[in-house]
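Curious: explain these tokens?
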Amino acid sequence: MSDATWVRGADKESRERMVKLAIEDLVKREDTPAELVKVVSVTPVTWQDMAMGYPQPGRKVAPGYVPGYQIILSYESREYDYHSGFGRVVYVPPGKGQAPLPANML
């Protein structure tokens, strides 16, 4: 399945933009050069709500399906899980994320 068939507006540029945002966050988080960060996988998914698979205690979450990506990065043999919609990425600490729905849910 190509990104274009997954959801209107999902294209290579949006995917690359979300990966870039995730890498930028990891570079700041770990204080490392970007060239040491590896992209393990970028999977088109559908999140069940605006929390994008990372609900946080005390925060209200708007309902509605959110198309996005689950981005797995690695640095120094550790993997980092990022969840994205088309405007932001969120780092999800190990064991804190919820599984996404398949990308074709929309």
In short: The helical segments are 3-6, 12-30. Strands lie at 38-49, 63-75, 78-84, 89-92, 101-102.
